[in-house]
Amino acid sequence: MGAIQRTIKAVDGVSLRIFERDVVGVVGESGSGKSTLANVMMMNIRPPLMFVGGSVRLNVGKEVLELQKLDRDVLREKVWGREIAIVPQSALNALMPTLKIRKLILDVVKSHNPDVVEDEVIGLALKRFREIGLPEIAINMYPFELSGGMRQRAVIAIATLLNPRLLIADEPTSALDVVTQKMVLKTFLDVYNRNIIKSIVFITHDIATVRQIATRIVIMYAGKIVEDGSVEEVVAKPLHPYTDGLLGSVLTPEEEIRKRGLKYIPGQPPDLANPPPGCRFHPRCPFAMDICRREEPPFIEVEKSRFVACWLYSKR
Length: 316
Ligand SMILES: Nc1ncnc2c1ncn2[C@@H]1O[C@H](COP(=O)(O)OP(=O)(O)OP(=O)(O)O)[C@@H](O)[C@H]1O
Ligand code: SF4
Ligand SMILES: [Mg+2]
Fold this sequence. Notes:
By secondary structure, the protein is an alpha/beta fold. The protein has helices spanning 34-42, 72-79, 91-94, 101-112, 118-131, 148-159, 178-193, 207-213, 231-236, 241-247, 254-260, 290-294, and strands spanning 23-27, 57-60, 63-66, 84-87, 166-170, 199-204, 216-221, 224-230, 299-303, 306-309. Strands 4-5-6-1-7-8-10-9 form an eight-stranded mixed beta sheet, with helices on both faces. Strand 5, helix 7 (178-193) and strand 6 form a beta-alpha-beta unit. GO terms for molecular function: ATP binding; ATP hydrolysis activity.
């Protein structure tokens, strides 16, 4: 008997543009496709993930790179770390425990450019450490010798070593206590405000975090982007019923939202191997209409830079 093959469209028909100086918070429940979207944005596609169609374009000066056309070797040499870098989900645990931070840094940089001069790399790393308030001594330590917050800052230092224009951070604060979370968020803002990186995509399921760090918010539901707009506008006036549910009252204190998480919307997200027809949110939506059960709502710009996929805002 062969293994059962199920195809899951973990991100499906999404359209996302990141501009210079954007800090985009990507929010969605577990399994909504946030990490998959991050991998697609870098074209880091490895089995079981497959890229079925679409394009990932990166403006580099006057040139536009179509990342989906590049081999992994070219991506590694030209794009990853230099143009787009990622702090992957669970990066804290992924640090090789048997290697000192110094060696981890050298390994990362050498994977992009085997011919680098080690002293130069370490010099660069120490400069970055100073910039983000990490003691230089940390470079000679093992990951387990650092506190959670210091380790996460070491990860940020490593990811930003080559001054990537875009930094994608996948749930970088989820495993940390509230005080450490604040410190790590500040580190992201430090590298951003110092212009070391130009833009951030910050993935989280914590709306409160997004409100602290992001300029724009992107809401994902069941592999789709359902809303995209400035944090200010989306928080003040969410358009999509799912966003509305996530945010609760805008007057809700941040601690309350943090405690409640995203769990209070009744029902479960769908199985992506067999998503419901029409709008994927319709089984949970208090406003669902006939058309919502039949046809997928288009993702449209309802006001300048405010996008939503919901039949409440589309002409049929
Ligand atoms: N290695 C895998 N094999 C099979 N299915 C996967 C794999 N990785 C992800 N998926 C599926 O793809 C969908 C999206 O997963 P993804 O990890 O992108 O979600 P996420 O929003 O990052 O979730 P989380 O908040 O838990 O990190 C999920 O339905 C998941 O079951
Ligand atoms: S399209 Fe319909 S079901 Fe989907 S969110 Fe809008 S109103 Fe609700
Ligand atoms: Mg994830």
